[in-house]
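Hi all, long-time lurker, first post. I run a small reading group and we've been trying to get comfortable going from sequence to structure in the token notation. Rather than ask abstract questions, I figured I'd post a concrete chain and ask someone more experienced to write out its structure so we can walk through it together at our next meeting. Sequence below, copied exactly:
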Amino acid sequence: MRVRTPVFILSVILPLLAADNGFAHQRTSGGPQSGIPIPEISHGEMIVMAENRDRIIDLAGRAIDTDEPFRRVLNYARIQYAYCLWGRMPGGVTDEASPFNECSHAYLAATKAVLLAMRDMPREAAAAGEIVSTVDSAMVLRGLALITCQFSGEAFNTADTIRPDWKAVPGHPASMATLTGLAAVVGAGLFGLRAIGRKGQTSLGSTSNKS
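-- Answer (accepted) --
Happy to help. Here is the structure in token form:
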């Protein structure tokens, strides 16, 4: 079975992404007045925020003292995380050349905004403060504060969806290998299901003939 391009993967398991025009990086905007601004995040911050993302989003999902802007930013963080293939692409966070780096900036910038907002919430402030301290300490110990990249100064907006740069995937070996491998697994699974289906039909046919 031949797997030609990552487009195969998208058409099989990511129909939402496959709907994007040409699979290229793009922003889709509802207009500057319709979204909530999200401050930029540095490349160094991203690394530690990614390590604490699940903890932050879990706390935010259980938060009680929320308002509409908070919920919209949290929703944006979740949507961007999905568009960025749930942070599973190698180098998506750490590699500036990755086709998934800018969309990683987007979901992690939103995650950071959610975390900082929770410091002002009575019930969530203590837990959020602990996470902030963990992030700050890790950045200092690992010297991450000074690390920047081409997207470090980029702010985001909940009206803008940042998609991966699909056209750049073939030129990024780690992404290409991962997507091709995933395509092979999906293809093998589909082939197996078809084989089982044909076997089942054959068995039913044999039973009918004996009757």
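A couple of things your group might point at:
The beta strands are 27-29, 37-38, 156-157, 160-162.
The helical segments are 7-13, 15-18, 43-51, 53-61, 68-83, 101-118, 125-142, 173-210.
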